Amino acid sequence: xxxxxxxxxxxxxxxxxxxxxxxxxxxxxxxxxxxxxxxxxxxxxxxxxxxxxxxxxxxxxxxxxxxxxxxxxxxxxxxxxxxxxxxxxxxxxxxxxxxxxxxxxxxxxxxxxxxxxxxxxxxxxxxxxxxxxxxxxxxxxxxxxxxxxxxxxxxxxxxxxxxxxxxxxxxxxxxxxxxxxxxxxxxxxxxxxxxxxxxxxxxxxxxxxxxxxxxxxxxxxxxxxxxxxxxxxxxxxxxxxxxxxxxxxxxxxxxxxxxxxxxxxxxxxxxxxxxxxxxxxxxxxxxxxxxxxxxxxxxxxxxxxxxxxxxxxxxxxxxxxxxxxxxxxxxxxxxxxxxxxxxxxxxxxxxxxxxxxxxxxxxxxxxxxxxxxxxxxxxxxxxxxxxxx
Length: 389
Description:
The chain has helices spanning 25-37, 54-64, 69-80, 93-108, 110-115, 124-133, 137-145, 190-196, 225-229, 259-290, 294-299, 318-323, 331-339, 348-354, 358-373, 376-383; strands at residues 13-17, 48-52, 150-157, 163-169, 176-178, 181-185, 206-208, 211-215, 234-238, 308-312.
């Protein structure tokens, strides 16, 4: 009597790390909790990793250490828990003054702006940090060893107006093209991380091949989509904004909103609003597919499939946390941010995106860690593994 072998298809779990500047420290806390819940020396539980903006940096960090997930998370946490703004952008007096003069010169000379990157901040220190910390060759090693199926990083093309996901993946992953978005196979390097994390106005755009690219969160109408194109059967999303459960209070404005308040709302619309819409769309499609008889999928050649999704997001408002740590910024940055209204309550949203300082990042890491442990059972079921206990 012969035994019948059953080939079980293990669903590929995709990890989606959204953008959010310094807020992405929250993602590190979530990843640390996941690592602590898994058996020691476990491989990366997310075969498909997608990141945008600061989430792209976190994604790449996990990908290069995919063969030892806990070790990769530990290295990532070491960086984030010891961050200072001068590791991300120039915050010394001469650096700030030089960049400010460049911005002013671009306003009076269009010719100067054609040939020089103009932005509020100079993020050259971030590029140096990434070159020093990331062994990009390890991404391909992770793919060959089977610890990683695909890594995708999204950036926005200023000329084409397209959301481009640069990906490095197993051979069977094919490029894709949809309305205003496409996937392009590349060998991922520091230039793709810099492009994906180039927050508009704050950091300069990055030229890749023929086109300048900026932060991948800009007009990213379907932030979950890249993970699905790369082969994910289910997606874990780590957000950077507290879920809104109540309608905001309508209050009478006593003064004109400062620049920082307007910029903060603009960054929220770039980084988080499209994710909420895309997740709602995914869940609605899942509910619709439940109404279709199984035989109809084959008969009508329906290619849609239900995608299980789970989202972990802050249980506290990150803006309020940022307000507690305004004093940790270098004096020249406090002066600059005060001038645009970022140091008060109305400007805390903008500040939360650029506050790369130890106390703020560490509190967000702890928040992410504790929020994840509150969902321990659901999370472990979702990724299909058992914890250490």
